[in-house]
Fold this protein.
Amino acid sequence: MGENCAQKLIRSHCAPGTPCEPGAEIALRVDQTLTQDATGTMAFLEFEAMGVPRVRTERSVSYVDHNTLQTGYENADDHAFLATTAAKFGAYLSRAGNGICHFVHLERFAIPGKTLLGSDSHTPTCGGLGMLAIGAGGLDVAMAMGGHPFVVRMPRIVRVLLTGSLPPWCSAKDIVLELLRRLSTSGGVGKIFEYAGPGVATLSVYERGTITNMGAELGATSSVFPSDEQTRAFLKMHRRERDFVPLEADPDATYDETVDIDLAALEPLVALPHSPDSVVPVREVAGTPLDQVFIGSCTNGSYLDMARVAAILRGHVVPPNISLCIAPGSRSTVVQLSRGGELADLAESGARILESACGPCVGIGQAPRSGGASLRTSNRNFEGRTGTKDARVYLASAETAAASALRGCITDPRTLGAYPKPAWPDTLPSDDRMIVPPPEDGGSVEISRGPNIAPLPVFPPLDDDIAADVLLVLGDDITTDHIMPAGAKILPLRSNIPEISKHCFELVDPTFPARARESGAGVIVAGGNYGQGSSREHAALAPRYLGVRAVIAKSFARIHRQNLINFGILPLQFEDASHYAIFAPKGASRVVLRGVREALERGVAQAEADGRSLRLLCPLSERERGILLAGGLLNLAASSKR
Ligand code: MIC
Ligand code: SF4
């Protein structure tokens, strides 16, 4: 039987004979890893704790792209730590200023047919170039750097059949927003989206990257495009044609599901506050006043996007109510914009040009005014993520963003007239001098450890009986931004768990850290899709540090569930979702679980909640059970070494 692209990528990276039934665990060989500074400090601390002298991948790259705002010593300490750990352990270092990890990786390192594991949820961006690219917690990535396979449940493969071609003023962002509109932020959990059909050839790799990037917002395990002539052209443009490898689905390939999208029928779309799946046509909200427009991020920070934006803004100045912020995705993009003159167009329009980094996307600078409205080309508009709790954030394409910046309110770009088609250069700058290769032998490199680098916390093995206070009862779709907020003030504490845990659930309930510590053993109750969003393992580590032993939810997002397991927190699911009412709105305050070890064997735990009995599911693989029993993956790895 023929295979689709995802199956080919998986089969070529699994042990021969692995049964690849959806839901079964598969162990993937990891060719490349990517870490970024906000998750990378922890990942390298974890790698160091594993005692492996040098990375065992084909390529591991450590990026500095998130925490580039240095308002104190913390981020600079982290950068020095990352520079020295990269050199010591054999990873490449992409220095601050070189750009956002997903762009730099796509442009400089991605290779069709290979696997990439990254400690960032948008790692699937490189699926736009025919890779199997997956986001994971830092500890999973550290294990992969140490040569261990990445274990994941075999996803269902969804064919997204693209027909036709995009009308003027519609772009790749509208394709993925359409998917979010139809499928929601949990619609991709346990799935890989594979793009197919005649529409694929009409999309450049940058456009494909926009789509695979936001597959993360669908909750997908990954997203993948075939590797074809567009892929070859992209690699040639970056002077890497030698890395081209074709990848296509067999003509008789089958899929678990199909979604059809007629590109010609699309129109500009926008996600309304506060979720990437609250999608409506731009025309329905046209005229909504704005205070700010942000163009950039790993979704829409490419040269392709920037050149279109420059062409739209050329000769105009943004109106007084608009603060327009633009962050090109990579240093190579800035160089090209400057050589081609587009940078002048952007600056002349009044745009505030920011460094090539994540910046406003994750609340590092440019927080909107209180109650303000911001339209952004990034991928997440969760409440409070900008740094302003009551700001309203809309997500749209670069074209819609530029049009809205010009008019001062949400604007359907089709009302601007002719669609500009900027000339496309044959090559883009491919200068790797901001990427530091590791020395052949890093053994003597001393790791720089400023005061911001705290030791890893150690947790005991799992208790057999757990009696815990219900610390929080939450609704559906709780994001990791709710659990462990980011932003300019908290992100610098990523390498210091005792400090960062003081901000756990800050936006939801600022009393949480103190209550959790006082209780000594706590449980969190939540609705569906708990932990959606980022890969940050701090959203598990910090609660565990504060004494959280279990999360009881209707369902979990993939990466976060694995992070909970990796740090010894039980991810328990209501067998009967209506039992959520035992806790909400104001219900049981204490949960008792007895014989937990045996319950994990059976996959079902019997709990008492203020005297009421309920069954909780814990469907775990043998491997996951082993991790939980040991009190976390690091404990397990250490015990297997002894
Ligand atoms: C994000 O977009 O939320 C981040 C910041 O890139 C995170 C990683 C992190 O929290 O460091 C992600 O997407 O995984
Ligand atoms: Fe950076 Fe935003 Fe992309 Fe996360 S989503 S990697 S913060 S640009």
